[in-house]
Amino acid sequence: IASAAFSQGKGYSWLKEDNRIALWKNDQIIWQFNFDKSADKPYFHPLRTPSGLDITLERPADHPWHRGLWFSWKTINGVNYWEEDPKTGLSKGRSIIRDVKYHIGKASKPDADIKVRIDYADSSGVVLSEKRTLVIPAPENGQYMMTWQHEFTAVKDVVLYLEKPGKHGGVSWGGYAGLSYRGSDQLKDVSFFVSSTWTNTADLTGYGEQEKWMGVKAVNHGNKVSIVVFDHPLNPRHPSPWYIWYAKDRNLFFTPSLLFDGPMELKKGQKLKLQYGVWIMDGWVNAVEVEKQYTRFVNPGKH
Fold first, then answer.
1. Is 219 exposed, middle or buried (0-12, 13-18, 19+ CB in 10 A)?
2. Residue 197 CB-density burial (10 A; 0-12 exposed, 13-18 middle, 19+ buried)
3. I need a labelling partner for 301 at 20 to 30 A (CA). Which of 19, 57, 103, 268 fits?
């Protein structure tokens, strides 16, 4: 691959280019972080289990702004930062990638620490800035756990919002924004499971219940896979309401929706800190195992 740099060891290798970094195992990508500055909104795709099974979908025809695993606000001060112009691939509100720096481990222990600076801007200029840190340990025992840390600073007074969801008298499809996951179309027999023990396999748009975590178990070409997203207890409005958009064999999307129950206002200079975990694995896990992992996520120094 032109202009790529690889370091190899124990079947793993790193791909480093100007607009992406990827961890490979043998001849297949395990995860790839894309940060093309001309396209805004950094994201993960492909995202695979340690054995190489796909779990994300990138820019599907039904929603080309769905980017595997990514973070995006819906509206800031009434400007849309979510949907994108099909001709330009950009939203009216820009999530401008200013800088990306990363430290990666040796290929024998391929962990990564990625730092990203993003400016959120409308036609008047920058309204919100973000420092994002992504930590991805090396895959081990058929699983790996990402942590997402966000620090937003209001450059001007801002209102973060989305369409009012049906649960609160709004539109049936309202309620999504933030850290978001669009599942691969290779995932079949999908089952949602959450911290309150609710489970679901039926088509669903909405949900809106508060959960510490939400996960999906599925089958990819006969192989079991799981992905679980954790909402940190220090996040505002914890436990977060969650939004689901699922139709069997057509679309799989969910997000911890910080703004589901109402807008959030930040005064100029005010900060907003968020932290999430994303646990990816081969096989299926039960709620007891997820709770143990959630405890490790919340108290990483005690395990």
1. middle
2. exposed
3. 103
Q: What is the pLDDT of residue 9?
A: 46
- Closest C-alpha among 54, 185, 149, 272 to residue 44: 54
Give the strands of the sheet with 264-266, arranged side by side: 79-80, 75-76, 158-161, 264-266
Which ranges of the chain have pLDDT less than 70? 1-10, 302-303
Residue type, 204: L
- What are the distances in angstroms from CA 71 to CA 76, 82, 222, 262, 293? 14, 10, 30, 18, 22
Compute CA distances 205 → 59, 62, 164, whole Å: 20, 15, 14
**What local confidence, expressed as pLDDT, does residue 11 receive?**
86
Q: Rounded to two decimals, what is the model's pTM?
A: 0.95
Neighbours of 38 (CB within 10 A): 9
